[in-house]
Amino acid sequence: MKHHPLFIFLAGLLCACQPASEIDPHIHPAADMVLRNGTVISVDAQRSQYQGLAIKEGKILALGTNEEISQYIGANTQVIELDGRTAIPGLIEGHGHFLSLGRAQQILDLTQAQSFGDIVSQVAVAADSAEPGQWIFGRGWHQDKWQPEDIDTVEGVPTNKFINQVAPDNPVYLVHASGHAAFANDAALRAAGVTGATDDPMGGTIVRDAQGQATGLLRENAQKLVEDSIAEYMALQTPAQRQQSLHEQVELAGQLALAHGITSFHDAGVGFDEIDFLHDLEKANQLPIRLYVMVRSTTNEELAQRLSDYYMPYEDNDFLTVRSIKRQIDGALGAHGAWLLEPYADLPDNSGLVLESVADIEASAEIALANGFQVNTHAIGTRANRETLDLYERIWQNSEKTGPDLRWRIEHAQHVHPLDIPRFAELGVIAAIQGVHCTSDGPWINTRLGSPRTEITSYRWRDLLDAGVRINNGTDAPVEAIDPFASIAASVTRIMASGKAFYPQQAMTRFEALHSYTLGNAYSAFEEDVKGSLEVGKLADIAILSDNPLTVADEQLPKIQVDYTLIGGRIVFRRANTG
Prior knowledge:
Elements: H1 11-14, E1 33-36, E2 39-41, E3 49-50, E4 52-56, E5 59-64, H2 66-70, E6 78-81, E7 86-89, E8 91-96, H3 98-104, E9 108-109, H4 116-128, E10 136-141, E11 153-154, E12 157-158, H5 161-166, E13 172-176, E14 181-184, H6 186-192, E15 204-208, E16 214-220, H7 223-234, H8 239-259, E17 262-270, H9 272-283, E18 290-295, H10 300-306, E19 320-328, H11 358-370, E20 374-379, H12 382-397, H13 403-406, E21 409-412, H14 421-427, E22 430-432, H15 435-449, H16 451-457, H17 461-466, E23 471-472, H18 484-493, H19 510-516, H20 519-523, E24 542-545, E25 562-567, E26 570-574
Parallel strand pairs: 1-6, 2-7, 8-17, 9-10, 10-13, 17-18, 18-19, 19-20, 20-21, 21-22, 22-23
Antiparallel strand pairs: 1-4, 2-3, 4-5, 7-24, 11-12, 13-14, 14-16, 15-16, 24-25, 25-26
Helix pairs in contact: 3-8, 6-7, 11-12, 15-16, 15-18
């Protein structure tokens, strides 16, 4: 069954069809579309480059010189003149949260806040137009990116005093940029029944002041205390309102992805109900991009009962694939939730949080193995990565399968002990990294780990690649902006906002970075035979760029523009004023 995205924009206006050529259709069948007069980077095993390519029935028909490709132009062939631009395989977001990306466009955007005062101002404006009792949501704040202010803090974060003042009658819930902490005002804490006397949940922390009162900061699993109340509030919506919101999230996320040349998206954790919703959209030809979805179940009992019914391997021109599960062993370094082999430098009585027990994840992995599902485990800290490698190895020792057969992944793999780097390669575990996290987090990682430990454990991509480890790449959107070229630039230069490079000896080459975002991501989803490179017979998922990512100057790499995005040979995005 063929599937077509929603966002097909004005394809007939883009390029005029060419006059019929004198071609023999048996030797050179007329293409539906031809791209020529540019640079086509295949990303195949030979690192081939061409001047153009031809597309027929949604797949690559031919690649070659301008003269060779012009032989495929017929009376109805649409021709895009690249005019020196560069065509690459459609980019694949290797780890993100698709519906959350759309949701982030519906609430307060806190990513640009330069201070806590900026956050308070945004909440105040929202509260002015909100009805009493109406929740106010936001996402994207990061305390390590704020300018210093003369206000009291607890563990580096202000209390909710000022949020209470500007929104006394509205529960406020603001999620950290990492998604691994949140900030709630007193109204939200009251709605959830959280007080200074409430016990910390397993794998979570209610941060308290010197008097034992909750400050509003909730780390990791403590967020669920308030999120249960939010779920009750959202349940007051009618089914029609819920559906409208979900459809809007899909539309908003799809538009952002396509504008950045992203044609496929690895969704890192979706519940069964959301998969049902996405499956309905796929059947109605209403998914804007191709999704590779990881199942996120609440219990192993539910996983065992339902997983087999959701096995959806790739089919021809598919827009929804489900054949993996997602688990989470620890939290994020910024929220002191990453599980470390040694304590934090700035919190010496804390080595991080275990969000989901090793035994529980191991049981999930056994269920996944029995049902032919890939296992993708979030692990950020050094101990989290080691424990995940250990449990994978234990399971495989009792299985006839090997790591390369199963392609199990560690999501993030940010801080890895040097002794564990070769184990990734030996076991065949994929490191699913996000290049932009390195340059985004780099300015403050030393405060958490200290310089010596940071240097030998953090974002060790060069060592991983040299050891033979397969890497895929992404942004973790909406944790970071869904900008592949910011992530590719970070992978190559490791230059932070300060202009300094974060341990540049661990950088990738240009081709390695591009490969990680295309064929590397396709491999990690078992889809390298159909996407990830521009080769005859593969899907015509293509991004046409303003500049060549293999040759443009370092400082221009994050500024590359996407002029066109094609999915299955159809133009689904065109940048304004693009010729």
